[in-house]
């Protein structure tokens, strides 16, 4: 975890000189009352207008109690003036709000081995449950201002643990106190933003206002996805529900909107509630796509209410039972919901899924959309449709050359009785930068296909059939001009028994959809259809999923002559380096690789050029797909087109459960 954390946060750490103005500018009237309230509670603050924090200590633990006193004094003032925070989980009785606690001696309960021993110095929980899924604000204390970089690394560890446990978390705030200096830190999928240092003693009111503003943030600004609703099970663990737009779900439900009486948001959009049954995938990272895939099931509250009314209103036993049987609803539908922070410069995965919906061996599309964001107060109603949730973009950012990364040794508390002193690094100097924070858009992709990992195969036949079906799915995908480029045992999956298919294109008639201008691919599609016919038009056992790294390929104007020198260009997966905008740089993504008739069309729209840039599939592909050999290696006994396609698929990676 250590090296991965350092790598993902390299060159994405920025100082925001206006951090307080951008994120922690609370209601001025309330802040004034909070400052007065704090002065009534603390005599030194009242007399000297300064908080009491020791100027020099021999051990950072000597700072825990005084810092804790200051923070909880401010928090109590916020609770008294602003009111208690909204409960994370609805409660039926009055409960006292949580206070910040000293947690440096005891690890927080965790679901992951790599976070079981992490102990924030101070922490604020959402409620009484002590678990990483319930952490609201982690706080790191360091003895000296020179320990700022070490403190940033520690805080990053806590942030990673929070993101790895909270599927509803969009961004996270943390606080670091080094000596008497406080730094506010904001983590999101584009990296780290941090404030200038605030002297808690000499700038007592500035710090009080900033920390109070942080505590007054509502759940959305605090970093939680409002689509999620929470409850607790008998063990006290969170149970997640999510509200999805009815307009998206109804595309496949077959029900009429007039038949529904579901939730409605403040925007007037009708919603339907689903329970999160299982986490199929959770990328435990701070930055990047941060993909989460959930298995969700429709909540049957409406069905239960209908049955209850029918039972109550029935006058005769036989009549009542017959009425219930007649109005019985089908079993709640299940979906796979993918949450990710997509790169806007790449074609959305949902667009591809929608295009290939119903094809053999590929995941089935049910809907996709960018999650609406909270519009700024200055945004007019007419522009609200363009407002989506995305990583924050801030002008005037600065960098510290000594804090471009968090590559620094953190003393291990588990070794020896005396804690080794961290290295001191001067991180006070900043300068403007032209580097741009990666822009990522928060998106949902809804799929009606729910995959099962290959290692759960019950027999060798099921295992091999699933891989075969995924290969056939890849074949059809390639015939449409799309290369997957991320084939792995996590993206080749089995289909659950009893899986319903909303569309079966492999059983439909009609000619190839690739177009007459791409004859080779049209012929390849015809061969694929013949193969599927020979398989008896059965339903697939396996499927290929996750099209986030896909690329559109071009068709060469003529085959590569066999007598030309044999060269091979292969793009290894590890070669995908991030550019300043956070996208992937690929060697084959060059304009001169596009045929002339395609290049003219692409150049007419610069935005589409970024998202749907075609590549030459002879020279670019993942390691396992060395497609240059399709044209100059005539060693198969297959027919021309079929042989090319099968040679291309012969490089399928070895998969093991």
From TrEMBL:
Residues 563-578, 598-609 have a biased composition (Basic and acidic residues). Residues 304-334, 414-433, 551-609 are annotated as: Disordered. It comes from the Eukaryota. InterPro entries: Pkinase_fungal. Pfam families: Pkinase_fungal. Residues 126-508 form the Fungal-type protein kinase domain. Residues 308-324 have a biased composition (Basic residues). PANTHER family: FUNK1 11, FUNK1 6. This is Fungal-type protein kinase domain-containing protein. The lineage of its organism: Eukaryota, Fungi, Dikarya, Basidiomycota, Agaricomycotina.
């Amino acid at each position: 975890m250590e090296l991965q954390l350092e790598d993902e946060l390299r060159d994405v750490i920025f100082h925001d000189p206006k951090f307080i103005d951008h994120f922690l500018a609370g209601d001025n009237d309330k802040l004034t009352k909070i400052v007065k309230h704090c002065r009534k509670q603390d005599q030194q603050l009242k007399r000297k207008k300064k908080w009491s924090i020791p100027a020099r200590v021999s051990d950072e633990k000597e700072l825990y109690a005084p810092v804790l006193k200051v923070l909880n004094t401010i928090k109590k003032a916020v609770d008294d003036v602003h009111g208690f925070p909204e409960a994370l989980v609805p409660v039926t009785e009055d409960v006292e709000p949580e206070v910040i606690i000293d947690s440096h001696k005891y690890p927080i309960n965790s679901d992951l081995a790599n976070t079981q021993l992490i102990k924030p110095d101070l922490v604020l929980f959402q409620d009484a449950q002590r678990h990483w899924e319930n952490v609201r604000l982690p706080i790191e204390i360091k003895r000296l201002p020179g320990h700022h970089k070490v403190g940033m690394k520690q805080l990053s560890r806590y942030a990673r643990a929070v993101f790895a446990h909270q599927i509803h978390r969009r961004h996270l705030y943390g606080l670091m106190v080094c000596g008497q200096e406080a730094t506010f830190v904001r983590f999101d999928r584009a990296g780290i933003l941090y404030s200038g240092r605030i002297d808690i003693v000499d700038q007592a009111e500035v710090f009080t206002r900033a920390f109070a503003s942080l505590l007054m943030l509502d759940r959305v600004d605090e970093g939680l996805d409002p689509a999620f609703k929470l409850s607790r099970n008998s063990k006290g663990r969170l149970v997640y529900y999510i509200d999805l737009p009815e307009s998206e779900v109804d595309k496949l439900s077959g029900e009429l909107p007039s038949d529904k009486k579901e939730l409605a948001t403040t925007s007037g959009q009708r919603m339907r509630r689903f329970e999160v049954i299982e986490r199929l995938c959770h990328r435990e990272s701070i930055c990047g796509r941060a993909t989460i895939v959930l298995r969700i099931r429709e909540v049957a509250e409406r069905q239960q209410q209908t049955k209850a009314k029918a039972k109550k209103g029935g006058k005769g036993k036989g009549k009542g039972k017959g009425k219930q049987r007649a109005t019985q609803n089908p079993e709640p539908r299940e979906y796979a919901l993918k949450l990710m922070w997509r790169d806007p410069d790449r074609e959305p995965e949902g667009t591809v899924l929608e295009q290939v919906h119903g094809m053999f061996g590929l995941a089935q599309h049910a809907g996709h959309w960018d999650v609406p964001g909270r519009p700024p107060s200055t945004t007019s109603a007419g522009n609200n449709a363009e407002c989506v949730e995305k990583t924050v973009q801030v002008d005037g950012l600065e960098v510290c050359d000594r804090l471009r990364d968090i590559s620094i040794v953190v003393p291990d508390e588990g070794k020896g009785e005396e804690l080794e002193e961290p290295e001191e690094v001067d991180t006070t100097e900043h300068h403007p930068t032209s580097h741009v924070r990666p822009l990522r858009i928060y998106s949902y992709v809804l799929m009606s296909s729910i995959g099962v990992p290959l290692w759960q195969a019950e027999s060798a036949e099921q295992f091999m059939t699933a891989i075969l079906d995924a290969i056939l799915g890849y074949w059809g995908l390639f015939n449409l001009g799309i290369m997957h480029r991320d084939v792995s045992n996590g993206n080749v999956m089995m289909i659950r028994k009893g899986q319903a298919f909303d569309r079966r294109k492999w059983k439909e008639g009609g000619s190839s959809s690739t177009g007459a201008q791409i004859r080779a691919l049209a012929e390849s599609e015809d061969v694929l259809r013949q193969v599927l016919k020979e398989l008896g038009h059965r339903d697939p056992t396996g499927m290929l999923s996750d099209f986030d790294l896909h690329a559109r390929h071009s068709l060469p104007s003529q085959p590569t002559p066999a007598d030309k020198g044999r060269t091979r260009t292969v793009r290894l997966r590890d070669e995908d380096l991030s550019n300043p905008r956070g996208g992937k740089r690929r060697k084959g993504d060059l304009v001169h690789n596009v045929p002339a008739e395609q290049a003219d069309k692409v150049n007419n729209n610069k935005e589409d050029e970024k998202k749907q840039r075609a590549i030459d599939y002879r020279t670019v592909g993942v390691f396992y797909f060395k497609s240059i050999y399709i044209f100059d290696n005539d060693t198969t006994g297959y027919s021309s087109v079929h042989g090319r396609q099968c040679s291309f698929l012969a490089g399928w990676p070895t998969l093991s459960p």
